[in-house]
């Protein structure tokens, strides 16, 4: 979702003795070129998302009986050695604490942190390119602000596809990136000590907000789909109690914020803290003729032109349902600690853009990743649990460490070793990641039904058996893979024709 470039040789100065004209634009400097490892990294994560883990996410969510039928069908094939309980646990979200096998992390829970981290990596490259093209400081800031707004609106649009009306919810990845984007941008190009200081302030400050606002002792967790038995609610005497599902500071903040973006009633009784008069006399609000004065006035108000503010609320903020809780426990304020994840990406982007050998940069990435993972684990044992769904400070560090190690791997393979050709299939997706994401969110089901099954269903059945289009058989792997191939071909066409969409 940003431009990535490598350093190029600066344009030689003119030999003419005539002084150049004075310009108010920023002085062009050398521009960075594309970083193959970042495009491949982005493409890898987007491939997993679009393909649904090539069917693994669907299988991981199946009930035991249906899953057993799929396992019976693949028995004796190479898939049997790949599809097992240890693999499948990587393709479902953790219920609350986000670790597996002691200190492993589910691949599926790393999708969003990787996006936040990659946005940060790209920022120094995008910033450097626009500066090299002569863009002024104000123009770059305006572009960052506009990009943030577009990401939020696009995220709301995609989120609203699940509802009947425009619904202002912000837990999806695009909204989260957009909400934190401009704040992270303001720290691009600053000294690393300032950026690290900002990370510390964000994480410690966010931790403090939760600690100072624990849930009430009589909080009804069952009413918000949270239970202690599922590990989502910490005991009353636990120091981790403030990080319980739908009983934390961010949840209560959403109750205030998101209900301001709706027209839902506030559940108060008539006359209770509303400024309305309350009376037991049914004649009190009628005129001498017995006509209801309040009703007449109401009709007159309805007939009068609405203010622009009221009209906007009627168009886009008219959801009649009150916001009560998020069933998964996700919150809007997750974007605050995720800014720290983005800032760690910025630090890595600056490292890769700066001077020094590639080998040294690779070793630095490994070290930084180890430090983040270690700090995350230490925080988990001392101050707050590792929970992705509310992006605890320990999760911000822990997940960033794994993201840094993944970047290091791709940097080794595609920017240090001579294996760039192997990155090409991933670059096709990574070069147009925003298009692939939106298509995946809006067209994946249609493409699977109307393109893959309708036109190529018999081909797939010939190649993979009669259950190739059955999502309760081997089709659970075949259909999402074939659908992804269609997406990849669209990406290839865009890449060859140099169509690159940027926000």
Topology readout:
Layout lengths: L35 H15 L5 H6 L2 H11 L3 H5 L2 H4 L22 H22 L4 H24 L12 H13 L6 H20 L37 H12 L32 H11 L4 H9 L18 H19 L4 H25 L10 H24 L3 H11 L2 H10 L1 H21 L10 H22 L7
Task: Characterise this structure.
- With 503 residues, the chain is mainly alpha-helical.
- It has a domain at 93-266 and 309-417.
- It is 56% helix and 0% strand.
- It has 19 helices and no strands.
- α6 (111-132) packs across α8 and α18 crosses α19.
- The model is unreliable at 2-28 and 268-301 (pLDDT under 50).
Largest sheet: none
Number of helices: 19
Radius of gyration, rounded?
27 Å
| Poorly predicted sequence stretches spanning 5 or more consecutive residues | 2-28, 268-301
Beta-strand fraction estimate: under 5%
Mean pLDDT: 87
Number of strands: 0
Helix content range: 55-70%
Q: Outline, from the CA principal axes?
A: globular
Q: Class by helix and strand content?
A: mainly alpha
End-to-end gap = 7 Å
Element order, helices and strands?
HHHHHHHHHHHHHHHHHHH
């Amino acid at each position: 979702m940003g431009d990535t470039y490598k350093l190029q040789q600066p344009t030689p100065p003119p030999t003419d003795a005539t002084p150049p004209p004075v310009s108010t634009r920023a002085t062009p400097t050398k521009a960075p070129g594309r970083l193959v490892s970042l495009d491949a990294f982005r493409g890898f994560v987007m491939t997993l998302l679009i393909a649904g883990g090539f069917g693994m996410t669907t299988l991981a969510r199946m009930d035991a009986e249906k899953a057993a039928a799929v396992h019976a069908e693949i028995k004796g094939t190479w898939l049997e050695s790949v599809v097992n309980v240890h693999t499948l646990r990587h393709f479902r979200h953790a219920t609350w604490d986000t670790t597996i096998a002691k200190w492993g992390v589910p691949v599926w829970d790393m999708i969003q942190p990787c996006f936040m981290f990659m946005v940060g990596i790209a920022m120094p490259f995008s910033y450097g390119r626009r500066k090299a093209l002569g863009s002024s400081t104000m123009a770059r800031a305006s572009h960052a602000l506009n990009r943030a707004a577009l990401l939020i609106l696009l995220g709301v649009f995609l989120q609203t596809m699940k509802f009947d009306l425009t619904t202002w919810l912000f837990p999806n990845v695009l909204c989260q990136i957009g909400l934190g984007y401009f704040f992270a941008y303001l720290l691009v190009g600053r000294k690393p000590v300032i950026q690290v200081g900002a990370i510390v302030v964000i994480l410690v400050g966010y931790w403090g907000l939760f600690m100072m606002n624990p849930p009430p002792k009589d909080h009804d967790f069952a009413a918000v789909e949270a239970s202690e038995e599922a590990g989502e609610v910490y005991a009353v005497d636990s120091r981790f109690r403030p990080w319980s599902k739908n009983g934390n500071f961010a949840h209560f903040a959403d109750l205030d914020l998101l209900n301001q973006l709706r027209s839902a009633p506030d559940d108060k009784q008539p006359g209770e803290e509303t400024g309305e008069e309350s009376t037991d006399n049914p004649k009190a609000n009628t005129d001498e003729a017995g006509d209801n004065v309040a009703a007449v006035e109401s009709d007159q108000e309805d007939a009068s032109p609405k203010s622009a503010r009221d009209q906007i609320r009627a168009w886009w903020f008219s959801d009649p349902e009150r916001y009560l809780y998020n069933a998964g426990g996700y919150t809007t304020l997750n974007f605050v600690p995720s800014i720290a994840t983005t800032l760690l990406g910025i630090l890595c982007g600056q490292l890769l853009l700066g001077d020094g050998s590639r080998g040294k940069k690779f070793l630095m990435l490994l070290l930084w990743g180890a430090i983040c993972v270690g700090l995350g684990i230490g925080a988990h044992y001392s101050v707050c649990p590792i929970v992705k769904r509310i992006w605890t400070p320990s999760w911000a560090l822990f997940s960033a460490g794994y993201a840094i190690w993944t970047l290091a791997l791709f940097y080794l393979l595609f920017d240090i070793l001579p294996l760039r050709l192997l990155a090409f299939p991933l670059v096709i997706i990574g070069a147009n990641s925003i298009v692939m994401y939106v298509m995946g969110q809006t067209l994946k089901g249609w493409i699977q039904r109307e393109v893959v099954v309708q036109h190529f269903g018999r081909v797939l059945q010939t190649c993979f058996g009669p259950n190739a289009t059955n999502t309760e058989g081997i089709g659970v792997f075949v259909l999402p893979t074939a659908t992804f191939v269609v997406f990849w071909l669209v990406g290839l066409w865009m890449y060859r024709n140099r169509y690159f969409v940027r926000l």
